[in-house]
Amino acid sequence: xxxxxxxxWAEKKHAKNFMENANIYVLERQRLLGILRSFYRYxxxxxxxxxSIKVLDLGCGEGVLTLxxxxxxxxxxxxxxxxxxxxxxxxxxxxxxxxxxxxxxKTFQQLIEDGSGENILTDGFDxxxxxxxxxxxxxxxxKSLFQYIYDNLNSGGFFLNIETVKAPTNELESxxxxxxxxxxxxxxxxxxxxxxFEYLPEQYKNNPDNHPDTLETQLNMLKSxxxxxxxxxxxYGIFTIFGxxx
Length: 246
Ligand SMILES: C[S@@+](CC[C@H](N)C(=O)[O-])C[C@H]1O[C@@H](n2cnc3c(N)ncnc32)[C@H](O)[C@@H]1O
What we know:
By secondary structure, the protein is an alpha/beta fold. The chain has nine helices and seven strands, in the order H-H-E-H-E-H-E-H-E-H-E-H-H-H-E-E. It has a single domain (4-245), classed as Vaccinia Virus protein VP39 (Rossmann fold, 3-Layer(aba) Sandwich), CATH 3.40.50. It has helices at 12-25, 29-44, 64-72, 85-94, 108-115, 139-151, 170-191, 200-206, 215-225; strands at residues 54-58, 77-82, 101-105, 125-131, 153-164, 228-236, 239-245. It has a seven-stranded mixed beta sheet, sandwiched between helices. The model has no long low-confidence stretch (mean pLDDT 95).
């Protein structure tokens, strides 16, 4: 099994670096978040309004996804999980003004292990969301986490994953890194950033903490677990949004 403790995310410096610079190099980050909000608006409207909508944010980082959902509905009940104490500290600060927010420091590996025993999550969830976190798990671990997600969704609940995937061929993978780099170049000009992050697509490829699987593999995993309406909802190079409904 992979170990969160051995990954760069266990380092405070790495976590801080991501929080400071993600808007510069995560491809179309604002669009990804906009689609997340649209998805929430559309599908939450058909859910019962008697109880608060329950959201689980896996690999929450500093809480960006939950913050976006709170802009749509400040009454949601959210649980945020991350392996990093540094990330959770920032998430707590960013979500300070909201009630009904629960923070848990656990790694995905621990969740998978717990999944076969006592569940730390007492509630079922209407939305389980994640962004740029699950690709750190190996293939078999991803499937176990997807199963854990399915088991903790309410019937009719949705899983939405913003995630980098492996391209189906090396040639496409190589082009996708080029379009990512071109986007970073454009974005740096737009944001008037002096520091350059153009090296990142290459670094992502060589980083031993990244274990992306193809989109097809992951969509098939979701279908085999029993998710419905499984699809890729957005894609730009290796950046995707995919998921399914219970
Ligand atoms: C690229 S950051 C994304 C953070 C946030 N979701 C966002 O989009 O801004 C990845 C996050 O996943 C967390 N993470 C990575 N591997 C993990 C694991 N095995 N278990 C729990 N959290 C993990 C990291 O600590 C980090 O907060």
